[in-house]
Amino acid sequence: MQLKLRLLIGAAALVLAAPLSANVLLPGECAGLSCTGTSVSSTLETFTIGTPGTFLTGVTTSVSQFGISGIFRTAVYRNSGNGLDFYYQFQNTSATSEINRITTVNFGVFSTNVGFVTTDIDGTGGAGSGGTAVNFVAGSQAPVAADRSSAPGTTIGFDFRGGTDTIANGEVSRIFVIRTNATGWSTGSTFMINGGVASVASFQPIPEPSTYALMGAGLLALGLVRRKRQ
Predict the structure, then answer these.
(1) CB under 8 Å to 176, separation ≥6 — which residues?
(2) Where are the beta strands (DSSP E) in 15-142?
(3) Phi-psi group of 49: left, alpha or beta (phi > 0 → left; psi -120 to 50 → alpha; rest → beta)
(4) How confident is the model at residue 8 (pLDDT cuts 50, 70, 90)?
(5) Where are the domains of the chain?
(6) Distance between CA 161 and CA 30 in Å, rounded?
(7) CB–CB of 28/149 below 8 Å?
(8) With contact defined as beta carbons under 8 Å apart, do 211 and 83 qualify?
(9) How many CA atoms are closer than 13 Å to the CA of 127, on its beta-carbon side?
(10) What DSSP letter does each residue of 103-117 carry, written as one string?
(11) How buried is residue 9: exposed, middle or buried, by Cβ count under 10 Å (0-12/13-18/19+)?
(12) pLDDT tens for each residue of 14-24
């Protein structure tokens, strides 16, 4: 019985295991020059993509809300580890609003390795590998930090506050990348923030049924261990 419980707990833990690349963010952690009071404090890394993986889906959307306007690009690629990479980029066209923060949601049960790309994802200034109308470009504005909300860690944020690289009128952000162990995706929301908050549809990961089953098994095992000790 003890062996079975240990196996179940170990299987559930594998769901949250993070591969080593770029900045691995666990719930409640932050990476970057402006991090304070967190367990991670290092320069936010450039994400080494190489040749993009297999293109799965992408969209370019015009944004115009609460004084914030611009062009938002998002896409999903299958990476070499058979997980999913989520790409985000914002191009500001507002004459009055500088974007200080960009956040996206629904990453709670996944490993998250974050960074940004300094050039276009395929080096051509156009479509990515596999063909896409997203048309990412080589942006110049890099975040000073990336962070993940406290457990369950659903929100990932790219922060420009405390630095000089806000996304001002006519400027384009770097391409932000969140590498995950997810195998499925759905639509969700990404938010551009500066006083007001503009939201736009984007892509986020969704757990497979087997992921829920492993998590449930792990929680059940922990509950049984606790009851037995009592």
Answers:
(1) 87, 88, 89, 102, 114, 115, 116, 117, 143, 158
(2) 23-24, 30-32, 54-65, 68-78, 84-92, 101-104, 112-117
(3) alpha
(4) very low
(5) 18-207
(6) 14
(7) yes
(8) no
(9) 11
(10) EE---TTS-EEEEEE
(11) middle
(12) 333 333 457 88
What pLDDT does 80 receive? 81
Residue 4: Cβ within 10 Å count? 10
Q: What is the greatest pairwise CA distance in the chain?
A: 65
Provide the token pair at 178. Answer: 């969140």
Residue 36, burial from CB neighbour count under 10 angstroms (0-12, 13-18, 19+): exposed
Residue pLDDT, tens place only, 151-181? 999 999 998 876 567 899 999 999 999 999 9
Residues 167 and 94 sit within 8 Å (Cβ to Cβ): no
Task: Report whether 74 contacts 88 (CB < 8 A).
Answer: yes
Tokens (6 digits) for 38 = 């967190």
What is the C-alpha to C-alpha distance for residues 226 and 230, in angstroms, rounded to an integer? 6
Query: Looking at the DSSP assignment, which residues form a beta bridge with residue 184?
Result: 206
Tokens found for residue 167:
């996304």
Work out the mean pLDDT of the chain and round it to a whole number.
Answer: 76
For domain 18-207, the CATH architecture is Sandwich (2.60)
pLDDT, tens digit, 9 for 90 and up, residues 25-73: 999 988 887 676 554 445 677 776 556 678 888 889 999 998 899 999 9
Helix (H) / strand (E) element for 158: namely strand 156-159
